[in-house]
Specification:
Blueprint lengths: L1 E9 L5 H13 L3 E6 L8 H6 L2 E7 L5 H12 L3 E5 L1 H4 L6 H7 L1 E5 L6 E7 L13 E5 L3 E4 L4 E8 L12 E11 L2 E6 L7 H4 L1 H15 L2 H4 L6 H8 L3
């Protein structure tokens, strides 16, 4: 069986215990054994992280030892997948830019707060993750993020919806879901998930999250076909 680690914590408003429980159940349906940890110290042992098929981040804000980020970075570069949603991954550890580089984006605002009605537009043909999915409505926080231009965008939403300082600019299509690579590892992010019930009210959101986690966790199966050694990444990193 494949092995996944879910790290839950940080700001309670994002209901990390509920989303972690949901994600664990989804992964168990795909023959994963899942460990849920309430402490970041589980990230201390890089060798154990490298044995995992998937790490799921459910930790909003907070602080992390940079060595733990480096351990995740090495594990993902070695083929371990990384996935998360909403603030649980792309509003984690704001002080650590390597985390932001690895995950592909960083939350900066949600104009209007919670309870905003908007549409998620699926980028058809962008990935098997979105196969068969149609555009769908959401009522929740509307995430504005700063994005790594290297990501593969799977779904978007249009800004602005409500008046805010950014309204003076032209309308933009903000990524809602994306994939990217980190060394040999696969990374997936979904900006939905302010509260756990978003996945019930907008079922396509859960489909995206489930498929994204599974896709990320399959990275090791393809590592040997396109092997980039972890040692090479580490040697290059020492130059910067």
């Amino acid at each position: 069986m494949k092995k996944a680690l879910i790290v839950q914590g940080g700001w309670d408003g994002h209901e990390p215990q509920l989303t972690s429980k949901r994600f664990a159940k989804l992964l168990e349906n795909h023959d994963y054994t899942v460990q849920i940890s309430d402490t970041l110290d589980v990230l201390e042992d890089v060798e154990k992280l490298m044995e995992l098929d998937l790490i799921v981040a459910c930790w909003t804000m907070g602080e992390i030892k940079h060595e733990y980020v480096e351990n995740i970075s090495k594990a993902v570069a070695n083929g371990t997948g990384l996935a998360g949603c909403h603030g649980g991954m792309c509003d984690s550890f704001r002080q650590d830019v390597q985390w932001q580089f690895m995950t592909g984006g960083q939350w900066v605002s949600h104009p209007g707060g919670d309870g905003i009605d908007y549409t998620v537009n699926v980028c058809k043909g962008s990935s098997p993750i979105v196969e068969g999915l149609e555009d769908f409505p959401v009522c929740s926080e509307h995430y504005y993020l700063h994005i790594d231009p290297a990501v593969e965008v799977l779904a978007t939403t249009r800004f602005p919806i409500v008046p805010y300082y950014h309204i003076s600019n032209k309308p933009v299509d903000m990524p809602v879901a994306w994939t990217k690579y980190w060394g040999n590892g696969r990374v997936f992010y979904l900006s939905l998930g302010h509260h756990d019930d978003v996945f019930d009210k907008s079922p396509n959101a859960q489909v995206l999250m489930e498929r994204g986690m599974v896709w990320s966790g399959e990275g090791k199966a393809y590592t040997k076909e396109n092997q980039l050694t972890t040692e090479r990444f580490e040697n290059e990193a020492k130059m910067y």
